[in-house]
Amino acid sequence: MLIGRLGLDTARIPHADRHGLLWLARGTLTVRDGTLSFERMEKASSGDALERGRYTIPFQGVSMILMGPGSTVSHDALRLLARHGTALAAVGTDGVRMYTAPPLMSGRSGLARVQARCWADEEARLDIARHMYSWRLGEVFAHRSISALRGMEGARMRETYRLIAQQVGIEWRGRRYDRQRPGAADLPNQALNHASSAVEAAAAVAVASTATIPQLGFIHEDASQSFVLDIADLFRDSVLIPAAFRAAKQASQGAYANIERLAREETGTTLARTGTISKMITRIKQLFPDDAD
User: Fold this and answer.
1) What is the sign, positive or negative, of the torsion defined by CA atoms of 282, 288, 289, 292?
2) Cα–Cα distance measured from residue 24 to residue 93, given in angstroms and rounded to the nearest whole number
3) pLDDT over 50 (residue 6)
4) Of 81, 80, 100, the residue nearest 90 (C-alpha)
C-alpha cells in the first residue's frame, strides 16, 4: 500500500527526472479537479507561448514554475506545489527580475552539499574560482591567487568593453558608476547597470532552481547573493554587455527616453533567445558534479 492520501507521499518524482522550468504569465494558477490548472485570460501577444484558454499543468514533472507579470496564484495551488516539492517564483518579463522563491525545492541537497564542501576548503574554493575564470577568459591560468586573477580579469574586461562597443557602434569612454548618482552616468554605463540587474535576476532563478546556496560565492565573497553574482558574471561578455550596448545605441537614436526600460527589455529578449537560464543551470551542475541530483 502507498502511504498518504492517494499515495502521493511516495509518488513524488525525483528532481533528477524532472524537466527544468515552466514559464507562465498573464493568467491565474489554481487547482481544478485535484490538479494544477492555469487559465490564460488574455490574447497572446508577441513572444507569448500560450494562447487564451485553460491548461493542465504537469507540476510534478518540473522543478520550478516561474510566474510572470499579470499572474495570480491561489492558496490551494501553493499548497499543492509545496506538497510535491515544486518551487514557485515570481519573476519579471523574460526573467529580468527575481522577486521571490519559496524554498520548495528538491528533497535532496546534493549540489548544495558539494558547494558547501568546496567553499569551506580553501584549495577547492580557489579551484572553483579558477574554473569559472577559465570559462570566461578562455584559458586556465596558473595563478593561485584570487587577487591576481581579478587583476587579469579587469584588464581583459577593459578590452572586452572596447571591442563590443566598437562592434555595436557606440562611443565608449570607460566603465564609470557613481552609486550616489546613478543617473549621472552616460547612456552606455546606465544601460550596463540596468542590464546587470536583469542578468543577476536570471542567475538568481538558476541558483534557486538548483537549490544551491546564494551566499556561498567563490569569486564574490561579501554579498548575500555572492554565488548569484558569480553565475551572472559567467555571461557578462556574451549576454550582458552586448545587450546593454545595443540598448544604449537605440536610446541614443531616440528609441526610448527610459534607458532602464530599454535595457531591461533588450536583456530579457537576449536571455530568452539564447536560453541563458538553462545554460546557467548547466554551469552550476558542472561546477558541483559529484552529488548532483
Assistant:
1) negative
2) 10
3) no
4) 100
At residue 198, the pLDDT reads 94
Which residue, chain included where needed, has cell 584570487?
A: 146
Neighbours of 107 (CB within 10 A): 10
Q: Where are the domains of the chain?
A: 5-91, 110-287
Query: Alpha-carbon torsion 233, 234, 239, 241, what sign?
Result: positive
**Mean pLDDT, the chain, integer:** 84
- Based on the number of CB atoms within 10 Å of its own CB, is 213 exposed (0-12), middle (13-18) or buried (19 or more)? middle
Structural fold of domain 5-91: Ribosomal Protein L15; Chain: K; domain 2 (3.100.10)
Q: 110-287 maps to which CATH number? A: 1.20.120.920
DSSP state of 47: T
pLDDT in tens, 57-92: 887 788 888 999 999 999 999 888 877 778 888 988
